[in-house]
Design goal:
Elements lengths: L3 H10 L12 H7 L2 H7 L19 E5 L5 E4 L3 E2 L7 E2 L8 E6 L6 E6 L5 E6 L9 E4 L4 E5 L2
Antiparallel strand pairs: 1-2, 1-9, 3-4, 4-8, 5-6, 6-7, 7-8
């Protein structure tokens, strides 16, 4: 299980190696993605809080990267953070997410990106529920949910 201390170490010293890499030019991503998804995933945008029904859906399934279809989160790790964005306590696999120190907007945070294609997902915070204490705060438009049967 990942902890806040592990996240800080990864953001500072380097991330787990990805199982594979998907690389495209900005122009290629722009041609493939809807404008709002491109803005969030490739230009590090943020959707408005509470703009997606994904915040309140807790059915079984897996959440994949909208850009490269990498498995990022399992619905079993999803919780209602009341933050306005889908929230998870852990990634599906430790190497699925990369962590980057983010010093924008006059604060220090840890940005989370898909470790395969570098799509911006959101940020991780140390204010989640036990036992990890983590809150992966994710833009809903960066995810595609595959329902479990």
């Amino acid at each position: 299980m990942l902890t806040w201390q592990t996240i800080l170490k990864l953001a500072k010293e380097g991330n787990h190696p990805a199982k594979k890499k998907v690389t495209k030019s900005e122009r290629e991503w722009q041609a493939l993605l809807p404008e709002d998804v491109f803005r969030i995933t490739r230009l590090k945008g943020t959707e408005r809080p509470f703009s997606s029904q994904a915040c309140t859906v807790f059915t079984p399934g897996e959440y994949h990267c909208v850009c490269c279809n990498t498995l990022l989160f399992d619905a079993n790790e999803k919780f209602d953070s009341r933050s306005g964005w889908p929230s998870f306590t852990q990634p599906a696999e430790v190497e699925a997410i990369a962590y980057l120190a983010d010093h924008s907007h006059g604060m220090t945070r840890v940005e989370i990106v898909c470790n395969v294609c570098d799509a911006h997902l959101g940020h991780v915070f140390p204010d989640g529920p036990p036992s990890s204490g983590l809150r992966y705060c994710v833009n809903a438009l960066s995810l595609v949910k595959n329902e479990s049967e």
